[in-house]
Amino acid sequence: AYFGRSIRTRPSIVPAAPATVKVGRDGEFEPSVGIQSVEARRIARQVRRFQDISQRLRAYFLGANITLLDCHCRWKAIMRGTGFAGGFVTWASGYRFDFSSDIIPPVDTLDAAKALLLKFYR
User: Fold this and answer.
1) Mean pLDDT score across all residues of the chain
2) 85, 35 in Cβ contact below 8 A?
3) Could you give phi then psi for residue 93, rounded to 5 degrees?
4) Distance set, CA 16 to CA 19, 31, 66 (Å)
5) What tens digit of pLDDT does each residue of 63-95 get?
6) Closest CA to 91 of 37, 55, 42, 57
7) In a 3-state reduction of DSSP, which class is residue 41?
8) Which are the contacts of 25, defined by CB distance < 8 A and separation ≥ 6?
9) Separation between Cα atoms, residue 1 and residue 84, nearest integer Å
10) Predicted structure pTM score
């Protein structure tokens, strides 16, 4: 009736696997190095988010079946991005990007921010 919950298990030693960036889909940013620091993984994640939102906005303006609500959810994820001193908005304002959590910037501004992140990545 205890389904094995009363049996004590022995601790086992398992070698830790290094954390890596997940493999991207076709056309996504793909880091050239397999094992990276936490900061590099977070920057790679933000680069992919910027790629995703800029592609979605371009598709939205071309009439694809994408809602602005979906783009706003992606933008909120970018704003909540971790690994930046004082948060992403504060970090980006140091490079003259004036981001607001309520307004999605134009696609060219998103591409410029993505290029800045790629410069830090390399």
Assistant:
1) 82
2) no
3) -65, -25
4) 9, 21, 41
5) 888 888 999 999 999 998 887 878 888 888 888
6) 42
7) helix
8) none
9) 50
10) 0.74
